[in-house]
Amino acid sequence: MSNxxxxxxxxxxxxxxxxxxxxxxxxxxxxxxxxxTFYGEELKGGLVGNYVVIEGEKYGFLGKIxxxxxPEKERLxxxxxxxxxxxxxxxxxxxxxxxxxxxxxTKIDKGLNSLPMIGSKVFICxxxxxxxxxxxxxxxxxxxxxxxxxxxxxxxxxxxxxxELSQQALFGRHCAIVGTTGGxxxxxxxxxxxxxxxxKNKAIIIDPTGEYSNFDSLEGKSSTxxxxxxxxxxxxxxxxxxDLFVLLKPxxxxxxxxxxEAIKSLKVLRILENNIDNDLIIKSDENTYSIKIKDQVRxxxxxxxxxxxxxxxxxxxFNRIYNTFIKEIESISSNFDIRNLGLQITKECIYDxxxxxxxxxxxxxxxxxxxxxxxxxRINNLINNPEFNKVFGFSKLKSDDNELINGINTFIDNELxxxxxxxxxxxxxxxxxxxxxxxxxxFLLGLARNQKFKKKPLVLFIDEAHQYLNKKxxxxxxxxxxxxxxxxxxxxxxxxxxxxxxxxxxxxxxPNGTLSQIGTFITHRLINYQDKEAIANACSSANKDTLAFxxxxxxxxxxxxxxxFPMAVMLKIESPQIKPNSETPLF
Length: 587
Hints:
Low-confidence stretches: none
GO molecular function: ATP binding; DNA binding; helicase activity; hydrolase activity
Domain Helicase HerA-like C-terminal: 455-561
Strand order of the largest sheet: 11-10-24-23-22-12-21-20-13-19-14
Organism: Epilithonimonas zeae
Shape: elongated
Number of helices: 18
Helix content: 25-40%
CATH superfamily of the largest domain: P-loop containing nucleotide triphosphate hydrolases
Structural class: alpha+beta
Radius of gyration: 32 Å
Distance between the termini: 49 Å
Mean pLDDT: 87
CATH topology of the largest domain: Rossmann fold
CATH class of the largest domain: Alpha Beta
Largest sheet: 11 strands, mixed
Protein name: ATP-binding protein
Keywords: ATP-binding, DNA-binding, Helicase, Hydrolase, Isomerase, Nucleotide-binding
């Protein structure tokens, strides 16, 4: 960065009015506003959107021209002939963006502790000077010049001014890329992915439509993509019990308790199968497990068609297994054979105890079974649906190489830079997409809490994030808790080295708790009032003058705002070398 930003060849005017929100500049001559070339650099003069530097007494100031006008009496004289022959004296309005030390321009003061005085000189800001600021935004003093950077694009009004940003500033406090359809979000995501790959860092992208499939061909950089329902699956046992409840939507009065009891019974059956012939469990025959109660007394648990039969049988041996293995049975994992779940629910439709013997379960309860019919049908519909079998691997093993969690673990442990998880072939029924994305987020959250990303930070990109965040799954009976894995990542994982990058058309659909944790916003064209308000509320550096540009941004243009950026920057995103498959079909 040049040590002296105040080059008198760049002079354009004087400050003539100072207000808390902005200052006004007087141009002694309209000639000073015209574009000119200085040492091979084309300077645009006084144009709206251009950056200027102001020379104060103790501090220098960087500002942006917001508007230009002529004094009233000169407007009356304005004509085509007079403009080329007569000198006019325009005035302008400048937003002060930041202040810096006069004799050490690289040192930025956070906040505006002072303002320029009337009579301060205003200069056009050179490209080299402002480029240095962009590169060092968000970088701590001891690390200036060392963090990896990403060439994001160039200033909208000046193609020669490259906006090269520190990767730490972009992702260190999470990032959101927002804008209406066709605004350029996909190109921005591709540009950032390309930068991460070039810097040899790691990223995972959840791709709902397959538009980032062109990245798969980067040999030695990209891992084999995990395309769910096609060549990869997410084993149902990696879902939590809460995820299963969301998937199956039981009503609260009868169905939810019966579903929980059936899951508990199938977990007990899995324990019986895995602990045969120890001191506690003996398999007497194909359908009978003998459980040691006290001393040599043994009581039986009966099994039929891979389900535990309770009606009329003793409660005590079942409770003995439950109490002995309570930690495993009450865990949130779904470690049981889900193919037997529907039939097990029918076995759970019994009276709590036998009228004649309180130590036994009661007989068949027809009323409970009638209430559970819709739940059993949903379970059987899910399990027997070939599309969902491809996604959740109901008939596959958890240890298979193409299981999603195994694929993620392999990627995290290798030296490759990008893993694409594609949901393009996943059905929208049963809220499967939302549950899968939340389960992936929950798994990565667990790894982050176990310090997995401290030495190798990971950026998790979520395209079309409004599909997955802030989701409540409802039907006429049931309302679940929020699918909140990404909310938890946003709130607690910065210090663990797991960072979010959300891309969405509708920032209003992102939970306020998540939005408030986002430190960097790359905002493309936004028209909807609620979307603009969501960004304004979440981003401290956004003001009304800045947000006024959002509805008129062109394709690929964006406003960069954030905690680590002391000023909002309007830029044109550089076209990525690897382009997404997001072109609009032609009629």
